[in-house]
Design goal:
This protein is of the alpha/beta class. The protein is built from eight helices and five strands; from the N terminus they run βαβαααβαβααβα.
Length: 185
Amino acid sequence: MKSIVISGPPAVGKTTVAMALAERFGMRHVSGGDVLKEIAARNGAPRGGDDWWDRPEGMAFLERRMGDDRFDREVDGRLAEIFEAGGAVITSYTLPWLVSDGTKIWLAGSHASSARRMRARDSMGHDEALAVTRRRYESNVELYRRLYGIEFGRDLSVFDSVIETDSLGAGEVIEAAVRAVEGRA
């Protein structure tokens, strides 16, 4: 099976869906965020757990990325190679616009819904989680427009399926993603 890419705004459930799809279809899971963390660590940024992006160190690295394209370009190049090799479920903000073929799924969700997920996942308050999700999303929009001319979160024409997550539980989102993949097979 060709590769699958899961994209969407921060804290929408991309990793949860990607891991479930990888298990379901016997594929490997590759996190674009983990690849970027490896690059960040190699470039002197402190590296923490899953919530690193949402903490001051991760936000500082986001600012560094905004001024230095090489980080994102390296990640995207590595992910494109993995995608082309096939057999992977990849979480990535940009890959759906940069590759053709495979299955591309956008997980749509509001900032409020993402903030609820982030609060539960990262043990932070509502206002902080809402501010972080908005800042990360707006930074992605700006960064990817500048890097690639991508209208992140606005131009969804490259996706095979768009799944609205706000009113669904994790299991329902996963099943909708399974149906989307099976419909492309």
